[in-house]
Fold:
Amino acid sequence: MTTAAAAPTPRRPLRDRLSALIYVVPGVGWLALFFAVPLVIVLIVSFGTKDATGHVSLAHPGLQNYLRAGRPEYVPAFLNSLRYAGITTILSILIGYPIAYWISRYGGRRKILLLILVMLPFWTSYLIRTYAWMIILRDNGVLNGILQSVGLISDPIPFLNTDFSVILGMTYGFLPFAILPLYVSIDRMDDNLVQAARDLYASGRQAFLHVTLPITMPGIVAAALLTFIPAIGDYVTPDLLGGAQTTTIAKVVQVVFQSGRDWPYGSALGFLLMVLTLVGTFAALRTLRRETLGGG
Amino acid sequence: MSTDHDGSSLDLERILVRYLAENRLTRRQLLRRISIVGATAAVAPIIAACATGGASAAPSISTPVPAAPSSSDAGAAAETASPTATPEPTPQPTPEGELYVYNWTQYIGDTTVKDFQDKYGIKVTYDFFDTADTQLTKIRSDGKGGGYDVTYPASTDIPGLVRDGVVAALDLSMISNAKNLGTEWANPGYDPNNAHSMPYMWWTTGFVWDPDKIKEDLTDWTALWDERYKGHMSMLDDVREVFAAAAFRLGLSPNTTSDTDLDAMLQLLEQQKPLLRTYTANDIADFTGGQVWLTHAWSGDWGQMLSDKPKTKYVIPESGAVRGSDTMVVLSGAQHPVAANLWIDFNLDAKVSAANTNVTYYMGPNAAALPLIDPTISGDPRINPASATLDKLVELLELGPDLDKYTQRWNALKA
Amino acid sequence: MTRERNPWLTALAALTFVFLFAPIVVLIIFSFNVSRRNFVWLGFTLDWYPKLFANVQLLDALSVTLRVAVIAIIGATILGSLLGLGLARLRFRGSGAAETLILLPMITPEIIIGISLLIFFGQLFRQNGSIGQIGIAHITFCISYVAIIVRARALSLDPRLEEAARDLGASALGSFRHVTLPLIAPAIGAGAMLTFALSFDDLIITSFNAGPGSSTLPIYIYSSIKFGVTPQINAISTIIVAVVALALFVAWRLGAFRPDERRVVADDAT
Structure:
């Protein structure tokens, strides 16, 4: 077990440090130019106003857009986003962990093949997969058809355009982001540790709870972040699989930007969403790092 | 990186001159605009003003640009100036070798693009948008069309696009097929004399239902508020259309900008929201998928639904409904304006127009095409209503900044 | 191996595979549907496959998508790998800031990245969107993923390996090429694959940066969902799945993933 924090960091010669700096410069420069600068422009725009012709005006900069964003009518959309992203994250780990564990422990020589198989669906377009879910879930769709033909239900169950379908679509879409890091952390775990626990008469469950789970926690954290972050900013899934009651805050941002053509307001809402994600992410990272690495 | 737009001074000057001529901007107004950051429409003139010292910026100049040489670079200059200038005896200009068209997918005849390419030897690059919002964001991003030559905005958007200099004046001398237009389309209210746009397709907005699920004959908007169909109804994901439905129920104008009216409409829509399955951008798919029995729909979409659900019914509600149209325009930044005008002319050809209608189920404005259209489409009074019915319908008007009153309430409704 | 196998876990894994493949099976079946709008099963046909190869717009969109993906893979893999390696080796004062800068693109809502690049290119450089512009946008949001994967891998390496090579007389470049690079190669490969998947699928950022002649496959599909996606799109997706599956299987059989099976796949983000 050599984790990042525990790795020895011997003093490096200056030359090595300089060469490392050369590695970093192109990437940081790229992100500064094509990410940070445009983002700053949007930040500036978020303090502006929209003038009568729909153009951005910075004549009276202020916080008015941020104040407007706090209005109560957007609370449901913010809550929807948080709820969908939260449930999606939990489900992705609950589904991803067993399959990752199964591949890593039972896969034998076919491990990589199985992993490829798990990832295969994600090499087709996300939209077309979502569209396939629409075909499965709609009222006269595949799932209702099966349920009706075996006599479980008489009237179709409305799966589509509900919270259920949105969460299902998101979980399906973001599952690979969970499976990969889970697999890596489980696969890297030393089998002998579990074996040792069993030798000391720990039950299977105890061994899992007290050995496997803590050791693979970094993978779980990574999986959670990689699922939660894209999920909270998603509006395509709610657009396609959702309905009248499933608006997310990202959708509101899109409508403000595009239908309303109110770039300052849309920018402000977008930044709020970003800050929310950022705070959540760093809070989660800090807590989990403390817990799993014991301050190491 | 693309270098397809090099912003040559010739190009900028042309834009500035037309911009000033069409908008009657004074230099003082221009200077005021310079203070506005991000005013995309103003950027080009500003740069041009700097480059040329503003000397050529007198509004009286009407840019008598000679007809185009064939090179695509100078081809941009081929566009004639404002249509109010005395018509020049232009020889038919040589079209450029390329054309960039921006439209909905599947909103055109199956072979229209190929037929155009074969006839003129012009390579057509056809791009598509998913919503009108995406389209407008894109063509307004640089204030002159985002690099496209031709696009298809709704007529409602035309006055704003003309005012902001996003669309160019048409070269009517090249669009001889404009004679095919029905008389009611020759001088539409949104664009006097079709100076900047040609109508493409038109429709009515009503609702469709599945008679297998809903036995009674529906006639009015109240059906979309009927508790019995809870969870099986959809409204279009279109702010103006949704508020229009509420306006008709309340006997108000769908173009109202009164806050009291709008609040009443919003209240009615808030009552409706829990009954709805979706605010749909995919009305055809939702309806034919079976989960929606009753949906707010455009007449052409109903035509397309019939191919999967032949019994589907459509009604133009009796308390009032919207009629609308899409247009074809040449964008002001078009690099291939001659080809663009030819494209519009081509689509107004009776045969081409009929072929477009036969695929999309939307009626064109083309009187000459009428005999060539599939009679099950043109003969259906719900797709092609009698003029007496049409006269009672309302067109949505451009609201300018007051549109905010709608979008704010729309966001509140949906969130 | 002496471990007993838990049959419940195997059942759960089987169920997960059903969940993962159900939409793919439906997608493939519906590529043979007669209905043009493809929402109701109207009958079996093979027509859509030949028609697909006559659909210039769809093929153009696919070609644009692939070209963008190649740009994104080259750019993001090179920049991201260097960045990840550098950050792993470097523990300088500003490294916290650099790490935050890496995380930020992943946390930023896609629509904000899309709009900001639209304003950036449109207002500052007067660009209308193009394949190159989409490529730059994709590189920008993929760098972070590659950097994080490579950094995690590099951190788990024993720094003494490279030092040993140096002690044995290898040059800096030589020890990098013969020691470090082979060791982090799996992470770079994983980063490249992830970049491909992200780029191939992206809709929101792409649609803001697309311009004349650069509509990608996701834009095409999203734009057709309104009218119902034609089975041609299912057909093209079926072909893509088949090609990818075949390529990966062949690679697996040829042993491309063998040499160090345990570490071939992506490293995690912590």
